[in-house]
Design brief:
elongated; 6 helices
Length: 164
């Protein structure tokens, strides 16, 4: 019999439901940040000389980047995991606060810089007489934001796994 209440809580949270929520949490994070990586890659491809490839034109068709917005499911599922941990982990744990804080920074950059720049690029790509200087500026903004958000994602992954 286990005498440490923390160990009881940790062992009790590893059922199939917990594992499914954990898997969903990880998949949503990888999907959301993977979409950010794709945004950076397509911004780079947009700068290639010559005619735009069909995949670049298709990527920049007007519309909301819903796949990127899956990022907002990450903390929701994280809170569910905290609840399912039966007190083993909480919002007061340092690793949870670090992860949530960094996620907030990444989500804010996405909503205020990355996705608005992508929307403007969509408009410019749809125009045949788009201004090259503005496209170049927006491309660099998207690539920089994507790189920064991916760096945050890597740090958060390490923090979530290591639980310092």
């Amino acid at each position: 019999m286990l005498s440490d209440p923390t160990m009881v809580a940790v062992s009790a949270n590893r059922g199939p439901a917990y594992d499914l929520v954990l898997l969903a949490h990880v998949l949503v994070a990888v999907t959301g940040f993977g979409t950010v990586a794709v945004a950076g890659a397509y911004a780079r491809l947009l700068g290639r000389p010559g005619e735009r490839t069909p995949s670049v034109v298709r990527y920049y068709r007007p519309g909301v980047n819903w796949a990127g917005r899956t990022l907002f499911g990450v903390p929701v599922l994280g809170f569910v995991l905290l609840w399912m941990s039966h007190g083993a982990w909480s919002l007061s744990d340092e690793w949870v606060l670090i992860g949530l804080s960094l996620w907030t920074v990444a989500a804010t950059v996405g909503e205020t810089v990355l996705w608005p720049a992508e929307r403007r690029l969509q408009q410019l790509v749809a125009q045949e007489t788009a201004e090259t200087a503005e496209i170049r500026r927006l491309r660099h903004r998207v690539m920089g934001c994507a790189a920064g958000m991916l760096a945050i994602f890597l740090v958060v992954m390490v923090v979530m796994v290591a639980k310092p």
